Amino acid sequence: YHADGGQEPEARASQFRAVLLKGLHLLLKYKLLFACSCCLALLIGLVVTFLTTKIYSATTTVKIDRVVPKIVNTQTSLVESSSEPGFWQTQMELIKSRSLAERVATSLNLAQTDFVGAGSPSLWSRVTRRDTAKKVDAAGLQARQAQAVGKIMGGLSVQPVALSSLVRISYYGTDPGWVQRISIAAAEQFERSTLDRRFSASRHARAFLEERLQQLKIKLQDSEKQLVDYAQQRGIVNVDDKQPEAVANLQAIQNALSAAVTERLKREQLWLLAQSAHSIALPQAMNDKVIQGARDRIGTLKASYQEKLSVLKPAFPEMVALRAQITESEKQIEGALELIKQTIKAEYESARAQELALIEKLEQVKGEVLESRGRSIEYTILRREADTARSLYDGLLQQYRELGVAGEVDTNNISIIDRAQRPGGPISPSLPYNLVVAFALGLLGAGAVAGVREVLDDTFKTAEDVEEALRLPVLGLAPLVPQAKVERTVFEEVTTDFTSAISEAYRSLRTALQFSTEEGVPKALLVTS
Length: 529
Known about the structure:
mainly alpha
């Protein structure tokens, strides 16, 4: 029957109706018990409400900013960082701290007021009507102060307002006047304690800076004195005047040497090519007009020689003249090439000499620079120490001045928004709430008693009870007619009025008896209570 889910809800509904009907049956059956229990519970709730001490509450709202608003532009900040993860929890704990409660108790002088309950007067004092007011000694005053602090901490409550910078400071107590004053005093003392912490940190920082300024001032004086003495001993006017010039000269010589090395390598390659068998391939030779003219004439003469060689013998005077002209042109080429080689060699040697001269000059300038640096290194160290000391001194002096300005500006990240008002009535105990609780307890108590009585009651009330307990079938039910309403006997009712309920009940009983055995109506019947 659970496949379609239809039978289970019906079974639950049927069970619920059965339980509800059972409850209503118990309520009607024991209505007097329920009425008495609820009335007694309401009476007790009313008495308890009027006897319970009344509790009052007053709330002051404050605004807590993460940073202090800057009236002056300073770099020093003595408040919690806005990135601190536990900022709000820290503020809550500060408000609930014992130190703040002590400040409140001291500001309101609670140890000498009726805020701390005085002991009951003795019987002799009441009889003699003597004034019980006595001066409290120092030990007693301290004890009353501690008691007042404990009462403040016990009644103080802090509740932040969600999604805002507001915090509600509430105090709970039995006196509406003290409740209002302590709530306001807690907010005011929290505001002042924050200022006090800032001023205390500022004073501590200023004292530390003053000590450090004195130390740095002495160190700066010593450093500057050593610098002046060293400059006078070495005759140094300004060590930085020649340093840039020497460095520039060194850089210029290094650049010139690099260019000279490049030029020397280029000339060296040309000289090596000029000394080889392929000197005719030199760019200078290729571009020389004398060599080009001679090479052209040689080509023309050799062509004419070969042409005439087919008809004339080499010893012929014309052929000899042609060979002489060819030889003369070749000598011109060789002479021109030799001149070009000498020029290339001279250029190579000049480039090499220039390179050597620059190397020598570079070493000389390096020596001068190193010597100059060696002379000024101690002066530079002393000057750097003096500059560092001066920079530290100026920085600390600026911070000291900023702290002095910031400490004179009365700014705070705590501000009171709403001060507590005198409570118009107690918040506890609540008469409607107590009556509702008492009524519910009365119902529960009566229900428990009724349930116990039902569990202990083992009498038969329905035919189903008989069948379940005795494991025997019920043959029939005969109605019980009250004695006052009996006008005739049951026998007369059954024999004369066949339509009455009693007649119908006995006829049903007779029918059940006839079918109770295989033989029909039993021969013997036992009737018992």
